[in-house]
Write a structure and sequence with these properties.
transferase activity, 2 domains, Aspartate Aminotransferase, domain 2, 490 residues, three-stranded antiparallel β-sheet
């Protein structure tokens, strides 16, 4: 294959050869003997909301058994609160929601956006968001500042404009976006766009920059947010002796120095086992309970009681007007009601995390072993193989395959697809897997996040090794195919 002088030429050639790549991918699936009955029914993650994993037996039973009983929903929410307090203590509280995004929305609106009632003009407020991955979630609820970020969500999502991601912006709220020290924000992809490459993030230098921004915007600041993940590809590879990302602890300290809340988006994360507010100092953590945790589709907000009061009030959970300790009523965000069956499955999932966390951690250990074994056989030059970093995360019940260091010294590496590629359908590490009968995972920004669950686990939640190996072998072969058309291998 022809080698390219500039990276945009490489991506242009990949775009021109999409049909050829797909043809080779389909042939590779046959060569790998992926069973026909498995194709389209298994994949690299069960943690994507558009195609969630089947429920474990215990989760399914809890939902079915409770569905036949008469149970006040306030009682179920109180049981969730009790489980949270069992693990984090009485200073913490909880509020279930219909999805993680619903949880983020009600949290940002409750804690960050200015009040709308009362006389006089409304003021503006701001929150700080490090420039990291998935910015359309934790960074999408205000108008971007500085202005160079004003259109960075323009093409993201299925729908553009006011009915797309822009429609999430809260009233008179700004997002101060702060690049991180040591990160690269190079332009990559067929849908050519800046991508956050975060394995070299320096937490000490980054918090100095973040502190400067906080000082500049101090009169308007309402809070600080970030992701809650723990892997190098998300910028959180530097950890303390307890395994807590140092940058998250710094962000908490910075927020608290201004008496502001620190809100963590831990959508693809576990309560209890994963990112702990007792260690990282978060005031509120928001989860997607169907992603890593294994409950039915729903979200959960966990936080310090001081901040949970307005959030629970907005959800109609914080007591009746005539004076009760809890309710299941109607308030601003009644539309985010998760429903009875979701609450039942959340309770069971939290009980397992509290009492038998190995149900979720053991498959991660098994998955890591398989991924390392299969990637050890990848047919790439040594300098590219050396740039692949494999890290496991109990928080996300996932194994991260990060390859941004294959571009070390700005030499051509494994093609990096932007999140815009995902929405445009030009991320070949996702669309190519679909051609092989493998449901893909989050695989943009030089980062592939793999987790068990989608046809790769049994009904007890434990890994099926044969199915998992088929999926990982398909990914390895697809990387080899794409690298040939990128001109970086023969």
């Amino acid at each position: 294959m022809r080698k390219f002088k500039y990276k945009f030429q490489m991506y242009r050639n990949l775009q021109a050869n999409i049909a050829n790549i797909y043809n080779e991918a389909r042939r590779a699936a046959d060569e790998l003997n992926i069973p026909q009955e498995l194709r389209g029914r298994f994949g690299l993650t069960g943690a994507i909301s558009g195609c969630p994993a089947p429920l474990r037996d215990d989760i399914l039973h809890a939902g079915e058994a409770g569905a036949t009983e008469v149970i006040p929903l306030a009682k179920l929410v109180d049981e969730i609160r009790e489980l949270v307090k069992d693990v984090y203590g009485d200073d913490f509280d909880a509020a279930p929601a219909s999805t993680c995004e619903a949880g983020l929305w009600v949290t940002f609106d409750s804690l960050f956006s200015p009040p709308m009632m009362g006389r006089g003009d409304n003021y503006r407020s701001r929150y700080i968001a490090p420039y990291e991955k998935h910015m359309h979630h934790q960074g999408g609820y205000g108008r971007p500042f500085p202005p160079r970020f004003k259109d960075f969500l323009a093409d993201r999502g299925s729908t553009a404009g006011e009915l797309g991601f822009y429609g999430k912006r809260q009233n008179n709220l700004d997002t101060v976006i702060v690049p991180l020290a040591g990160a690269w924000y190079d332009v990559h992809g067929i849908k050519y766009h800046p991508v956050p490459l975060l394995t070299n993030v320096d937490p000490e230098e980054s918090i100095e920059i973040l502190s400067q921004y906080a000082d500049i915007h101090a009169p308007f600041l309402a809070g600080i947010t970030s992701l809650g993940y723990e892997t190098p590809g998300y910028g959180y590879g530097a950890k303390d002796e307890e395994g807590t990302p140092v940058l998250q602890k710094y962000l908490s300290e910075l927020a608290h120095s201004y008496d502001l809340p620190y809100v963590i988006d831990n959508a693809w994360g576990l309560p209890f086992v994963g990112a702990s507010p007792l260690k990282n100092g978060a005031d509120v953590i928001v989860y997607s309970m169907d992603k890593a945790t294994g409950a039915a589709t729903s979200g959960l907000i966990i936080g310090r009681e001081e901040y949970m009061v307005p959030i629970r009030r907005a959800m109609g959970l914080h007591g009746d007007r005539y004076g009760t300790t809890a309710s299941y009523g109607r308030a601003a965000y009644v539309t985010y009601d998760p429903g009875k069956e979701a609450l039942l499955t959340q309770i069971q999932a939290l009980k397992v995390l509290r009492d038998r966390p190995q149900v979720l951690t053991q498959p991660v250990d098994d998955l890591e072993r398989i991924i390392k074994e299969e990637f050890a056989q990848i047919q790439l030059p040594d300098h590219l193989k050396d740039g692949i970093l494999i890290s496991k995360s109990y928080n996300s019940t996932a194994v991260e395959v990060n390859y941004e260091k294959t571009w070390q010294n700005r030499e051509m590496g494994i093609p990096i697809f932007s999140i815009e590629d995902m929405y445009a359908g030009t991320n070949l590490f996702q669309t190519g897997l679909s051609q092989m009968g493998v449901i893909p995972t989050v695989a943009y920004d030089g980062n592939i996040y793999i987790s068990p669950g989608l046809g790769t686990c049994d009904s007890k939640g434990q890994l099926i090794e044969e199915n998992t190996r088929y999926a990982i072998k398909a990914l390895v072969r697809l990387i080899e195919i794409v690298c040939r058309y990128a001109g970086i291998t023969e």
